Amino acid sequence: CKGNPGPGGWGAILQTGGGHEKELWGGEALTTNNRMELMAAIMALEALKRPCRVDLHTDSKYVMQGVTEWIRGWKARGWKTADKKPVKNEDLWRRLDEARSRHEVKWHWVKGHAGHALNERADGLAN
């Protein structure tokens, strides 16, 4: 994102076991980096036409921790944080939760800007 909030983009690369690839990208005029990180995961999962086994790689600790650690508690508390505040980006967290429910997803965190080829490509699509 150029400014936070400001204009921003997201990018994702889908790869099949057979070696096929599809690039996805988009953006918004006024957004945040966290919303764009969420959109990349959402759009990748929503692009899958049928239930799949998915290895989803993200360089966003926000997305990674949100989906693997925090979301269960948020849902149990009616989409409130542990200190009873509304969850930021609740609309996108709900959408991600719905998208992931259709698939068997393993989540993987990768360090951004560290030479991970597909992550660098996805970052390029976002920009």
How would you characterize the overall build of this protein?
The protein has a single domain (6-126), classed as Ribonuclease H-like superfamily/Ribonuclease H (Nucleotidyltransferase, domain 5). It has helices at 33-46, 61-76, 90-101, 117-126; strands spanning 6-15, 21-31, 53-58, 104-109. By secondary structure, the protein is of the alpha+beta class. The strands form 2 sheets. Strands 1-2 form a two-stranded antiparallel sheet. The mean pLDDT is 96. The protein is built from 4 helices and 4 strands, in the order ββαβααβα.
Properties at a glance:
two-stranded antiparallel ribbon, 127 residues, two-stranded parallel sheet, Nucleotidyltransferase, domain 5, 41% helix, alpha+beta, single chain
Outline the fold blueprint:
Elements: E1 6-15, E2 21-31, H1 33-46, E3 53-58, H2 61-76, H3 90-101, E4 104-109, H4 117-126
Parallel strand pairs: 3-4
Antiparallel strand pairs: 1-2
Helix pairs in contact: 1-3
